[in-house]
Give the backbone structure.
Amino acid sequence: MPLNNVIRERRKEAGLTQEDIADYLGVSAPAVSKWEKGSTSPDITLLPALARLLKIDINTLLCFDTEPDRVILFTGV
């Protein structure tokens, strides 16, 4: 799931508004709206606080999957 969908879905699950997120992070509500639309992304320095507010870890926020879909082996040339 893309970052913008994670932010939107987790925000709604937490019962927060875009304004709540903006106030907590010190950004504008239109900035949060742009994140949720996928037209921009939060600054990397905001990710720990955003994850904490949404009660998830950064790996979940960024949709990091520790299990790769496929494994590529380098055998050398």
Observations:
- The chain has one domain: 3-61.
- The domain at 3-61 is CATH 1.10.260.40 (434 Repressor (Amino-terminal Domain)).
